[in-house]
Structure to design on (86 residues):
């Protein structure tokens, strides 16, 4: 995962997958901390992860909605890749 890092300012930041509690924590997958008491830096982290998850879920929802229209699209096989890319 570290080889896919981006540089923000002068800091190299690795890319992560933002997941919900169903996924195991790993070096490339982050999820909410959720521990009691839920205050301070832990609460701020959880809030940031939750906001990121909402953005990702909305993006996938829009993609799925648009993909349904592609299922009924009638194109020649040699034009399919161009149609999907568009």
């Amino acid at each position: 995962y570290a080889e896919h890092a981006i540089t923000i300012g002068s800091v190299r930041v690795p890319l992560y997958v933002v997941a919900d509690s169903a996924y195991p924590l790993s070096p490339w997958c982050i999820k909410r901390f959720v521990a009691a008491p839920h205050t301070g830096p832990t609460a701020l982290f959880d809030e940031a992860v939750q906001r990121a998850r909402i953005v990702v879920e909305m993006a996938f929802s829009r993609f799925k909605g648009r993909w349904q229209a592609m299922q009924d699209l009638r194109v020649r096989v040699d034009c399919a890749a161009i149609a999907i890319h568009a």
